[in-house]
Amino acid sequence: MARYTGPKCKLCRREGMKLFLKGERCYGSSCAMERRPHAPGQHGRRRGRKPSDYKLQLREKQKVRSIYGVLERQFRIYYAEANRRSGPTGENLFNLLEKRLDNVVYRLGLAPSRDAARQLVRHKHVLVEGEVCDIPSAQLRLGQQVSIRPKSRNIPIVVDAVKAAGKRDRLPFVEADDKKLEGRLIAEPQLTELPVPIQENLIVELYSKV
């Protein structure tokens, strides 16, 4: 499946905020947003005109796509599913994105980034309810146990990720056991609990025009 393979730091600089795409590096002084907090390109430092409503909506959508690592076609599928469900479409959309297996592995601190989590899942290092699941986009249900295979628990990327995650507070809708390298989704994800501010109403407005 196609995916973005360009520089991750450019995505953060484009949006003007840290999207935490490169794991531990995003928390240190080597983060590009600390050294060059302006948009990429030769005109990145220029102060532009006031952005239009469409540009604000588009940039919010692109920001969310970058955070969760999904391409346009897949994002539209998520939006269509969120729109079919009862309740606010914006909240439904982020509920679907947060319940992706690769995202939950990242939220539990078993991988330093979503890209790393996606790779762990693809390489069959992750178990769901004791069974191997190699589909990063698999939707998890509340209470399902996610863990690292016993044979994969000494992988350096997992060990380092768990050590780093233990130093920071996890989000309230996940519960992790760092010793057993496992955890679960214990509550419905809430937009107000996410570390990166997201205006879901802008995305709904954008797609409602189509």
Write a concise keyword list for the protein shown above.
about 40% helix, alpha+beta, about 210 residues, single chain, globular, 5-stranded antiparallel beta sheet
Provide an overview of this structure:
The chain is α+β, with helices and mostly antiparallel strands and 210 residues long. The model has no long low-confidence stretch (mean pLDDT 83). A hairpin with a 4-residue loop joins strand 4 (174-177) and strand 5. The protein has nine helices and five strands.
The pLDDT mean sits at 83
Structural class: alpha+beta
Beta-strand portion reads 5-15%
Adjacency order of strands in the biggest sheet:
2-1-3-5-4
Biggest sheet descriptor: 5 strands, antiparallel
Query: How many DSSP E strands?
Result: 5
Helix content: 40-55%
